[in-house]
Design brief:
Pfam families: Cu-oxidase, Cu-oxidase_2, Cu-oxidase_3. The protein has 430 residues and is mainly β. It has helices spanning 2-18, 173-181, 283-292, 420-424; strands at 27-39, 46-51, 60-63, 67-74, 82-85, 110-116, 122-128, 140-145, 160-168, 191-194, 206-208, 213-220, 231-236, 243-249, 258-265, 341-349, 355-359, 364-371, 389-390, 392-395, 399-407, 415-417, 428-429.
């Protein structure tokens, strides 16, 4: 009888303990073998960087809060790092994959990245971050889906398609690096690629069934030219069933480079129209487009600022003060910022070409973008209501852009130019 009471008490303890256990979010494991191989994005064979023999590399498909484990084997003859463009790596900057936060993976060795896509959903990509390796491939899509318990403001699409667009050079990444080391620019690209090709006259890139809706996840993975965005869009197949072209073209260049791939209706009849639409001309069109974008505050989604803070706008101090704006100030490459400080950053572009800037570890609110010079009176034009959260921003020629963010992610984070030759020449800060 006594033994029965002991057994019953033990079972009750085990039962109670089971309610205290919290299961971890799911883990996804990948093994990448990184090698050189022959690729032909512009129809000319050249050496590229492959992941498991693929270019573009394998797609990572996960959901918010999933844990990602990637074991990377470097079989190149040079050091290697991968960075995860747009993934915030909350309190985990040593997995960010950039020089200064990660030691390079030496040839013939491996390294395992471990990170969580905490409180994020959306479309992202990865690429090799050392030297000019990004110009050789090693790129791929990173899809973070919404958790099932969090609704999205549209029906589930029939399928998700990842589209990686970008400018491309026929010269190898080592030749481009030597040009920069000798004091020369890498010049203009030789063309544009979409998912590793500039054109394919026979095989479709994707197929769609009439009447159904598809989500296209589009990322600009190029190294110099503006192709304008990283965005996801819903496309409904409600046109005549035949072939259509997906077209990607450079912006703001005298010579426009274009790539086109086929989107095919299942059981469609007829080729795509050979006449391609003219792209919007000039950066003023893009600036006005920026002003038209607003954040849907009623939609369910991962929050850009999970700590539920608000901007205490009247407490931020100008550094440097506005009266010194006309002077050139040499600042250190490493900026020490207090945890949970509210920050306003102004980018001014005095050049004739577009600039693009990316901040690792954060999403920020792009609150204003205007031509001319910035001054404190411009703050009255800031969109403090429904600005779009993003991690990369453009600064148009002779213009300025303002962003606001909260430094609530402890670590060492990289603020860099997305024009990769500038980045290589150390046009970045941390």
């Amino acid at each position: 009888m006594g033994g029965s009471r002991v057994l019953l008490a033990l079972l009750l303890c085990l039962s109670a303990g089971s309610f205290l256990v919290r299961g971890e979010d799911p883990y996804f494991f990948y093994t990448w073998n990184v090698t050189y191989g022959t690729i032909s994005p512009l129809g000319v064979p050249q050496q590229g960087i492959l992941i498991n023999g693929e270019f573009p590399g394998p797609r990572i498909n996960c959901s918010s809060n999933n844990n990602i484990v990637i074991n990377v084997f470097n079989n190149l003859d040079e050091p290697l790092l991968f960075t995860w463009n747009g993934i915030q790596q909350r309190k985990n900057s040593w997995q960010d994959g950039l020089p200064g936060t990660n030691c390079p993976i030496q040839p013939g060795t491996n390294f395992t990245y471990r990170f969580q896509v905490k409180d994020q959903i959306g479309t992202y990509f990865y690429f090799p971050s050392l030297g000019m390796q990004r110009a050789a491939g090693g790129i791929g899509g990173l899809r973070v889906n919404s958790r099932l318990l969090i609704p999205v403001p549209f029906d589930d699409p029939e399928d998700d398609y990842t589209v990686l667009i970008g400018d491309w050079y026929k010269k190898s990444h080592t030749v481009l690096k030597k040009k920069l080391d000798s004091g020369h620019s890498i010049g203009r690209p030789d063309g544009v690629q979409i998912n590793g090709k500039s054109e394919d006259k026979d095989e479709p890139l994707f197929t769609m069934k009439p009447g159904l809706t598809y989500r296209y996840r589009i990322c600009n993975v190029g190294i110099k030219s503006s192709l304008n965005f990283r965005i996801q869009v819903l496309v409904t197949a409600n046109q005549d069933p035949k072939d259509y072209y997906m077209v990607a073209s450079t912006r703001f260049l005298k010579q426009v480079y274009t790539a086109k791939r086929i989107i095919r209706y299942t059981n469609g009849k007829g080729p795509a129209s050979p006449e391609l639409p003219e792209p919007p001309s000039g950066w003023i069109w893009s600036l006005n487009q920026f002003r038209s974008f607003r954040w849907n505050l009623t939609a369910s989604a991962a929050r850009p600022n999970p700590q539920d803070k608000v901007f205490k706008y009247n407490t931020m101090v100008d550094d440097p003060p506005p009266e010194s704006a006309e002077k050139i100030v040499i600042t250190p490459n490493v900026l020490n910022i207090t945890f949970r400080t509210f920050v306003e950053i102004i980018f001014e572009n005095h050049e004739k070409s577009i600039q693009s800037w990316h901040l690792n570890g954060y999403s920020f609110f792009a609150v204003a973008m205007e031509p001319g010079r910035w001054n404190p009176d411009k703050r009255k034009n800031y969109n403090l209501l429904d600005a779009v959260s993003r991690n990369t921003i453009q600064v148009y020629p002779g213009s300025w852009t303002a962003i606001l963010l909260t430094f609530d992610n402890a670590g060492l984070w990289n603020l860099r130019s997305e024009t990769w030759e500038r980045n290589y020449l150390d046009n970045n800060s941390t």
